[in-house]
Specification:
649 residues; alpha/beta; TIM Barrel; Thrombin, subunit H; 4 domains; six-stranded antiparallel sheet; 32 strands; globular
């Protein structure tokens, strides 16, 4: 990708969603392969990925496959064979975490560093660039200044910086969470996270006093960088990634369209930037991120630490306000809407908070308009089950059936600009198409020349039939007619000439498409920024060990999943701080009369049922460690431990 190009990167659970992502303006799509992706339940056949790649390449859009889990030794060869198949299927790049893959004899496919590689420092970013990774996904916790420092340390001609701009937030630094594996044996680094971060916890201090009760203190709001795109561009980001390989078609259509619109506005204002793929997209709807599932939004740490990043009350979708309860019947609820324009539909999902702040859902079986902004809704479930539902209760809507139906239809058109020129030849006529990328195709056909009886009508007919590009990926930007005199040309001949020219142009575009090149590693091999690696480096096979040893690392511990760390360790490292969010941070207390010196960053305890975790606070880098240990049952169901260097050789 060229340094001046801005890439919108959309997720795809399957090929059909990926195709719609392209149709809604994505410059690139990332999708899981048959196995070894960090979303185990979002895998796809190679044939489906080939179908997606063929569609994406029509628009010079690219397809990246996630192969971003850590691999056991016995998985390296199956992964190798899968990579060969994906390359043959037309995939443009692999998103990887396991550095052992770089020690294999891979086809010349471009490699990108997954966010799972935990890229937070200029030194780590520079190293990954120097070992041959062409695009790197930065940690979501970085601020603009840190991003700019990484850009300054890397070469924009060799390495593209990618950043998540929308979707669910992993509370841990990606790749640095082991709670799921420690408690259930399901490894987040192997695509099978149990999402302990979305559970409710009781938080207690060192004396056992309750600090917070049944709060989802590790659950983040959803990421939304809509207001920060230009600042991210100026800091050096060139690929803007939407999270969501588990998300449905409506989400991908809407969020892709939303960021396509925002990026196009920037590109139109700033001519030094360009889209990373071809064509312009038009939508049959107005994109609105609030219409999809979200836990409310945050821009996280991009502008510095903030105290409102958590979705502590519920990890569910609270929806948008629609009104309040005006009356409760035995089988119905009357709602006064906030605006007379609000329409409630059969099948809508409503919700409200109980007095205990629990989010409770209410699905509408039937909605009847009473008048004056008042609606009577009949829930699908019995009224007796709705706790604390009373007059005055505020009501939100988290599923709008009108919106769902709108996104269920064809909702966009993506067209590549093309200029048409009709000329006469000795035997008949020729038509030349030139597209916005400079590709050209000319077709000619024999036809008798018959003077037109009505010159103006003849030219209008020519333009009308030549411009009929409706079912093609092209849109006519201009039609030139270069004839010695007005000729009568039948519509059937023009249509056939146009169809043949379009097919020839599509063939020319396909032949000209070049997949991005694999970047060579620098020689001699780059030295890794540290000479010792703990379990936090996620080294799970001997090829990965060999990789780090080749790059100067002297002590290499095995990944947590090898079960060599049996005692208490950091099971999660995060920039999110529970003390800060609960206004218990010592830094917050500075300057408050009578408080300074009494608030200390002492550990807290998280309790969920029989599960207990300790929160420890490292105030210098402003980070939180969630400490725990491997469950005995998980250890007994153990994989074979790996033994690497225990001491410096």
């Amino acid at each position: 990708m060229q340094p001046h190009q801005l890439e919108l990167l959309a997720p795809a659970r399957d090929a059909d969603i990926g195709i719609e992502a392209v149709n809604h303006g994505a410059d690139a799509v990332y999708i899981g392969g048959p196995s070894f992706g960090a979303r185990a339940a979002a895998s796809n056949d190679v044939a489906d990925i080939a179908r997606l790649a063929a569609h994406a390449h029509r628009y010079n859009a690219r397809v990246f496959v996630t192969l971003n889990t850590i691999l056991r030794d016995d998985e390296l060869e199956p992964a190798h064979q899968q990579i060969i198949q994906l390359y043959e299927a037309g995939v443009d790049a692999l998103i990887i975490q396991d550095m052992g893959l770089l020690e294999l004899d891979l086809p010349p496919i471009q490699l990108h560093a997954s966010t799972q590689t935990d890229i937070r420092t200029p030194e780590k970013a520079r190293f990954l660039q120097d070992v041959g990774l062409s695009q790197i996904v930065l940690a979501r916790e970085l601020d603009l200044e840190q991003i700019a420092a990484i850009r300054a340390a890397t070469d924009p001609e060799r390495c593209t910086l990618e950043f998540f701009v929308h979707g669910a937030l992993c509370v841990a630094y990606s790749g640095q969470c082991y709670i799921s594996h420690a408690h259930t044996g399901r490894s987040a680094n192997r695509g099978d996270c149990s999402q302990a971060c979305r559970l409710p916890y009781q938080v207690t201090d060192m004396e056992g006093r309750i600090v917070a009760h049944d709060k989802h203190v590790l659950s983040m709001k959803d990421n939304n960088q809509s207001d920060n795109l230009e600042a991210l561009i100026d800091a050096g980001i060139r690929s803007f990634k939407i999270e969501g390989r588990y998300k449905d078609m409506g989400y991908v259509k809407n969020i892709t369209a939303h960021y396509r619109t925002l990026l196009d506005d920037i590109i139109d204002r700033r001519p030094e930037f360009a889209r990373a793929s071809s064509g312009r997209t038009t939508f049959a709807f107005t994109p609105d991120p609030n219409q999809n599932f979200n836990r409310e939004f945050t821009d996280y740490f991009v502008g510095g630490r903030k105290d409102d990043i958590g979705a502590f009350d519920t990890p569910k979708n609270p929806g948008l306000p629609v009104g309040y309860v005006s009356k409760v019947g035995d089988k119905w609820v009357e709602l006064q809407t906030d605006s007379p324009d609000i329409v409630l539909n059969n099948g809508d999902g409503l919700c409200y908070y109980t007095l205990q702040k629990d989010l409770t859902g209410l699905a509408i079986n039937r909605a009847e308009k009473v008048g004056g902004g008042i609606w009577r809704v009949f829930p699908k479930d019995p009224m007796a089950g709705f706790k604390d539902l009373r007059a005055g209760t505020l009501i939100n809507r988290n599923r709008d059936m009108n919106w769902t139906r709108l996104l269920g239809k064809s909702s966009s058109e993506r067209r590549i600009g093309v200029w048409l020129r009709l000329e006469e030849t000795a035997a008949g006529f020729s038509l030349t198409l030139t597209d916005e990328d400079g590709h050209t195709a000319t077709v000619a056909a024999a036809h008798a020349k018959e003077p037109a009886k009505d010159a103006a009508k003849a030219e209008a007919t020519l333009r009308e039939h030549l411009g009929k590009l409706g079912t093609t990926p092209f849109a006519a930007m201009g039609i030139a007619i270069d004839l010695s005199q007005p000729w009568f040309v039948p519509a059937s001949f023009l249509n056939a000439l146009r169809r043949d020219a379009v097919a020839a142009l599509e063939s020319a575009r396909a032949a000209a498409y070049v997949r991005p090149a694999r970047a060579p590693a620098v020689e001699p091999p780059a030295i890794y920024p540290e000479d010792t690696l703990t379990y936090l480096a996620n080294v799970y096979n001997h090829k990965a060990r060999d990789f780090y040893a080749k790059h100067g690392v002297q002590v290499i511990a095995a990944a947590y999943e090898s079960h060599e760390e049996a005692g208490e360790v950091s099971l999660m490292i995060t920039k999110h701080c529970v003390r800060y969010s609960l206004s218990l941070c010592p830094k917050q207390a500075k300057g408050v009369t009578g408080v300074q010196g009494t608030v200390r960053a002492t550990p807290l305890t998280l309790i969920n049922g029989s599960e207990k975790l300790t929160l420890c606070f490292d105030c210098k880098p402003c980070e939180m460690h969630v400490v725990g240990k491997l469950k005995l049952a998980v250890a007994k169901a153990s994989t074979t431990p790996l033994t690497f260097y225990k001491n410096r050789p």
